[in-house]
Amino acid sequence: MVRLRKYSPSFLTHGLGDNFCLAREDIGNKEEVKQDEAEHSTFNQNSKEILTEYGSLPDLVNFNNYDTHAQSEFSNTLRSVKTVEPSNIKVVLLRESKFKKYLFAPILTILTCGFAFIFAEWYSSFMRFFLYCDATNEEDATDLFIEETREETADVNEDGIKEKVNVIETDIINIKTKIGPLCKFQYKYTPFFYNVNEGIVKKIEYNYERKFKNLRNLKAGISECDYDDLLSLYGSCKMELIIDPWYRILIRDTLNAYYLYQIMGLTVWYISGYYKYATLIVVLMVYSVYTEYYDLKESMEKLRKIARYECKIKVRRFDEQGKLEIRDINSSELVPGDVFEIPNGCILPCDAVLISGETIVNEAMLTGESIPSIKTCVPQNDDYVDHFSVENGMQLKHFLFSGTEVIQNKETGTDCLAIVVKTGFLSAKGELIRSILYPTPNRFKFDLEIRYFLSGMMVLALIMWGAALPTFIKYFSLGDIFLETFDIFSLPVPPELPVAMSVGVIFALRKLKNKGISCININRINVAGRVKTAVLDKTGTLTEDTISVSKCEIFDGKSFIPPVYPPDNIPIDTSIWFNKKAYQSCKNDHNVKFTECMASSHSIALYKDAPIGDILEIEMFRTSQWIMIENDNPKYNSDDQWGNLLIPKEARPKISPDLDANPDHFLMIQVCKFDFSSDVQRMSVIAKPSYDSTYVCYTKGAPEQILKLCVPNSVPEDFEETLKTNTSKGKRVIALSYKYIPDFDESQIPFLKREDIEHSLIFLGFLVMSNNVKPCTKQSIDELKEGNVVPVMATGDNLLTSIAVSYKCSILTNKVYYSCEKAENGDILFIKKKGYKRVEPTYSNIGSLDIADEDSHLLVSHSASYPERLNSNCIRDVMDGNKDDLEIVVTGAVLQYIVECSDNRSYICGYNSEEILNTLLKNCKVYARMSPSQKATLVQELQDNSGEMIAMCGDGANDCNALKVADVGLSLSTSEASIAAPFTSSCENISSLVDLLRVGRSSLDLSYLLFKYMLVYSSMEFTSVIILYFHTSNISDSQLLFIDFFCATPMTIFLCSLKEKSKLSPNFPPGSLLSPSILLSLIGQMVLIGASIFAIFMTLRGQNFFTPHHKSGDIADENQEVTTVFAFTLPLYIFIGFVFKSSSRFMGKISDLPTEQIILAAVVFLSQLGLCYWICLGPLGFMKDALDLVSIDFYFRIIISGFSTFVVMISFFYEQVIHCLTKRDIIE
């Protein structure tokens, strides 16, 4: 039997948002039953208090009007809710008006020729006026008007500060459920409550941050009555993506402003008799809509396939009689609070917290991390779980995330159990899916600027229409004026533009795929073309995934003994591991304790008899030459004592087959572990040696952190010197220590705090590890720098190690750098230090080097290269001096401090903290000891301060936050299904980042090129039509069809098929369509070609053979004027594409294409060119009738051909001049 514990009013005063949860206890005696009945009698009063706290009104709801089940539903479900109030969402109650729906809206639509309906589809605020009325109470409300405000970064103002602007997004959402004054709705796949009385919106989440005090009873699960309530509140455990049917997408696309514009033009063209051309445009339009629909459906189907997953799960629930049952259910039936058994080999369908056992999972799909993660159960420790949250990095080891694969389970006496905390789109996988569906707004405004240009073309059309209007009035009827007006306004905007842009994206995706890069957000491809700063993780990204132990620096209590080479050759008499007396006599020897620390201080586990876990710990354990076995002893699998552990492990030496057979060999048994955390930068294990009765704590971690915890007299005097000697060569150094724990009580293990154990340690020495730079790293860094992309290292490693690796990678290059540090009084110090230089090893200089390295190229320091505080004016040298060649290094803690000071607008050392932050961000190349959240902060600050596009490249879970925040996130992961970042590369080195940036620049340049080509090609048609309209003539249907199909389409495909440059150019594509290079090129080419068309037209009219066209009320399309204009412009339609291609610095040469493509392009181009000049010069033959041409004097044909060729040459020359003049604009 289960009873509900009602919380007292003192609890309620803390607020629903922080404390509403459902607590359970088994009822084992009659007193508790009576207590439960007494509490049930006060149910109405308690529920009213709960609602009053939520609604802030005493008489919010009359509970007597609700039946018993309704009371239970409201109270129980709300007690399980943790509500988070989003400050950026406002809600208005709406009710659907039948008067507006059936009378007002249809009449208004008819009166406005359908524009009212179109505006209602475009703008939710107009739809609110169109079909709805504001509701006065929640009972009448049927829908909600949502107004979401988000902050975006605007351009840099005159003071160099990034300004913020608010962007408002609106929508109308149907109300799902009403509970009293609460209206439940779903917005962007996220459930919310709207409190009508307070006008507050709160996000619905399960309150898993409860107190897990009674872990045993927590494993019992929920009851069937609670299940129905929780299901109605949180929904089923599945993610169903809604894909609109094809007709809905068709209506939505055709109501797009661009397609409406095309429909208007098509109507005019069909009425005017342009059947062939209009039909071609219809085909292109249908193809464009179909392509958009197909791409949308394909991407949504892929996303749906990733999102949708169901499996069979064994869940523990109470039936109506209070009896615990284990049921087989579909995973879609899980709700928050359910306790289920974790099956081996399954994909987790929800987010859960492990409450029993241990499991090994693969989180590659969510994080890109290829190394399996080990998850442990929640300990029965009140202090530990008081603030239990996934945001606590130390507690992530207990969380199982939706979408991760369970590799192996291990039970601790009972089944491997987990409690569901998040389902559906609220889970970690759901959050990623929603981030793909609703990505961060693109800061690159290319699409918006296209609209500006097209609006400008419409203004030009209006001016030309005004100039041609007197001719229309003089010669045309009113109906013809109406048709010709729409014809003029339909020409400035190229109808092929959407198709051309779509083809460009398809080719860019194909280029990325050929390089092993997958993309889930195509809008980010062009953004990659403007990346100017690349933030790079170190381990696994710049350096190898593998780590090897170079040597052991062991401290014997007096001094460091000579370094142990190889590291597995520690001087120990191995017989002690098989002789208890011998072990007792030398157990305090530092060599023994150093080996025991390597063998026991780890979190690795066995999977198929092979160790898995952190590669550093695996290598450390391998160096110890011990073997690990998992303990099957029931004593160490009891939930009463060991519920907070991994499966306890035994480690023992592996010496020889004969000695291994000794039944009395030494064992080291892990009994408690404090996992590594980036916050404390250490981990500890409590172990019990089988030859000793005293427990030992072994602690390893960052040297500077271990130093603080050690007994001072156990630390050698040359601690700092030895550490720097190793870290300055790029070595990774781990400090090892230990302490005995006398009178250790095993029963207190679940309640231990690491602070109570990790103190008064005895220093053992350093484990020096090599993490070599990947072979292609330096070359890729050099390529980035040649391409004017600033490489920045952000790592969790030691500062000196990071500096040394950065010199190897050429991230740092100066002989002097400044270390940014924080003084005790809060001041920021820039300490000038000497850097490193590369020395080719020779016999003559090898003895004079300060630091020796095994590499062929030595990384050495100058003499006296370590902290040398030259004077107190270093901060002035940095802040007031020349910053062009300045290089700074900093730790994450100092960066966070400066960011906080900048947010508070405080001063440091007399300087504005914002100025210090700006200087730091512009000149800092190495960020060390960075936590995952600090990496994300770094990316955000770089975005806000520079205004440029920032790329982030990483390989694991520590980089996930930064990958999402960055404008271009590249995850180096072999998991094809990884959705940790917009881009995922199967090539696990930063050469893929160089490839991505090259393709990005090429794609962005292609977008500009296609836009310019389409706009100039459209302006040629527009200019020709306007000039001919003044003489009541126009280009014929066949001629328009020939221009679009024979000239423009092949050129578009050819331009899209060109490859990117083989190396990153030192220049960048323009950042805007409004940049001088784009504007001057477009305006100049349009004016040049327009003037040349007018010139050839006027030249024709001055010829002796010219017979003027008789102006009448009919438009003529077969006369000398039309033929001349058509023949003159034909070569221009082809050559203008090559003219724009000639100014590109980011697209490859034609010779870079495969041979078969070059041959095909040559055949097509020569065919085009031959046909064009045949139309100009040769006998027309059958082309005369097909294209509505007339005969022209042969000598004038030569003039047309020559003048057309001359204009092409002038156009080419002009483009090169503009390209050179705007070179500075491109670079900046």
TrEMBL record:
<dbReference type="GO" id="GO:0016887">
    <property type="term" value="F:ATP hydrolysis activity"/>
</dbReference>
<feature type="transmembrane region" description="Helical">
    <location>
        <begin position="1078"/>
        <end position="1102"/>
    </location>
</feature>
<dbReference type="GO" id="GO:0046872">
    <property type="term" value="F:metal ion binding"/>
</dbReference>
<dbReference type="InterPro" id="IPR001757">
    <property type="entry name" value="P_typ_ATPase"/>
</dbReference>
<dbReference type="InterPro" id="IPR006544">
    <property type="entry name" value="P-type_TPase_V"/>
</dbReference>
<dbReference type="GO" id="GO:0140358">
    <property type="term" value="F:P-type transmembrane transporter activity"/>
</dbReference>
<feature type="transmembrane region" description="Helical">
    <location>
        <begin position="1194"/>
        <end position="1214"/>
    </location>
</feature>
<dbReference type="GO" id="GO:0019829">
    <property type="term" value="F:ATPase-coupled monoatomic cation transmembrane transporter activity"/>
</dbReference>
<feature type="transmembrane region" description="Helical">
    <location>
        <begin position="1038"/>
        <end position="1058"/>
    </location>
</feature>
<keyword id="KW-0472">Membrane</keyword>
<keyword id="KW-0460">Magnesium</keyword>
<dbReference type="InterPro" id="IPR044492">
    <property type="entry name" value="P_typ_ATPase_HD_dom"/>
</dbReference>
<feature type="transmembrane region" description="Helical">
    <location>
        <begin position="452"/>
        <end position="476"/>
    </location>
</feature>
<keyword id="KW-1133">Transmembrane helix</keyword>
<feature type="transmembrane region" description="Helical">
    <location>
        <begin position="102"/>
        <end position="120"/>
    </location>
</feature>
<keyword id="KW-1278">Translocase</keyword>
<keyword id="KW-0812">Transmembrane</keyword>
<feature type="transmembrane region" description="Helical">
    <location>
        <begin position="1122"/>
        <end position="1140"/>
    </location>
</feature>
<keyword id="KW-0547">Nucleotide-binding</keyword>
<dbReference type="InterPro" id="IPR018303">
    <property type="entry name" value="ATPase_P-typ_P_site"/>
</dbReference>
<dbReference type="InterPro" id="IPR023299">
    <property type="entry name" value="ATPase_P-typ_cyto_dom_N"/>
</dbReference>
<dbReference type="GO" id="GO:0005524">
    <property type="term" value="F:ATP binding"/>
</dbReference>
<feature type="transmembrane region" description="Helical">
    <location>
        <begin position="274"/>
        <end position="294"/>
    </location>
</feature>
<keyword id="KW-0597">Phosphoprotein</keyword>
<feature type="transmembrane region" description="Helical">
    <location>
        <begin position="488"/>
        <end position="509"/>
    </location>
</feature>
<feature type="transmembrane region" description="Helical">
    <location>
        <begin position="1160"/>
        <end position="1182"/>
    </location>
</feature>
<feature type="transmembrane region" description="Helical">
    <location>
        <begin position="1010"/>
        <end position="1032"/>
    </location>
</feature>
<dbReference type="InterPro" id="IPR059000">
    <property type="entry name" value="ATPase_P-type_domA"/>
</dbReference>
<protein>
    <recommendedName>
        <fullName>P-type ATPase A domain-containing protein</fullName>
    </recommendedName>
</protein>
<comment type="similarity">
    <text>Belongs to the cation transport ATPase (P-type) (TC 3.A.3) family. Type V subfamily.</text>
</comment>
<dbReference type="InterPro" id="IPR036412">
    <property type="entry name" value="HAD-like_sf"/>
</dbReference>
<dbReference type="InterPro" id="IPR023298">
    <property type="entry name" value="ATPase_P-typ_TM_dom_sf"/>
</dbReference>
<dbReference type="GO" id="GO:0016020">
    <property type="term" value="C:membrane"/>
</dbReference>
<dbReference type="Pfam" id="PF00122">
    <property type="entry name" value="E1-E2_ATPase"/>
</dbReference>
<dbReference type="InterPro" id="IPR023214">
    <property type="entry name" value="HAD_sf"/>
</dbReference>
<dbReference type="Pfam" id="PF13246">
    <property type="entry name" value="Cation_ATPase"/>
</dbReference>
<keyword id="KW-0067">ATP-binding</keyword>
<keyword id="KW-0479">Metal-binding</keyword>
<feature type="domain" description="P-type ATPase A">
    <location>
        <begin position="315"/>
        <end position="436"/>
    </location>
</feature>
<dbReference type="InterPro" id="IPR008250">
    <property type="entry name" value="ATPase_P-typ_transduc_dom_A_sf"/>
</dbReference>
